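Now for a typical sample entry:
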Amino acid sequence: MTTEFADVKQAAPLKNVALFNGLCKRVINRAPGLPGMACFFGRSGLGKTKSAIYGANTSRATYVEVGQFTTAKSLLRSILLELGVATPRGSIPEMVETSILRLSADRHRPLIVDEAHHIAAKRFVDLLRELHDKSLAPVILIGEETLPGSLEKFERVHNRMLEWLGAEACDLDDARLLARTYCPGLRIGDDLLEEIRQRVGGNHRRIVVNLARVLEEVRKAGKTEIGLADYDVGLISTLKAPTPRRAA
């Protein structure tokens, strides 16, 4: 039987993938005079990054991911590298100017900044607004659910937002698609998929973790299909940390 857990490199066409792809199109094709920044936000584990990578590929976007130690200069270096500058050099103003020139060369090519909640509370987040204003290229920020609130502190950034779009939890259709994508050849009943989905609050990442666990159990039993009645629900990994056992 074919029950290998698939090593999926591309995003399955889940609802959040479609939502983000639609957001990209609306920002790219906005009417003249409208601002060209947008925000895609939601709690961890909803597949935002996979959606962003898929959207970046389909829209030929410049995609960068930031972190808690990102600085203005390291952000600009990452952007310039993605824009084809092999060895970004110069002062911050010089790198800003080069970025603007590169971005303005194709105003239908968005700049996507993932994990933007890490820099949303930092003063240099306004740098992204400057890149947008002077190049007219779309700029899309992706981050956790705190991102919109953090950006309120930067009025000029907040005012440039064409759209705020929240990522959605996986529904049963998404869970079915994940099962087909990650466990080809294994039939998993809707009742078990729905039980997993509800217990993890529709968290994309935890559903995938549980699919791997289901597949492991199926291998042990030598089956090609499984439903809720056949599965020990105590094995379902939820968002809660396990309670440590007390020593006897």
About this structure: The chain has a mean pLDDT of 92. The two ends are 43 Å apart (CA to CA). The longest strand covers residues 161-166. The beta strands are 37-41, 62-65, 111-114, 139-143, 161-166, 187-188, 225-226.
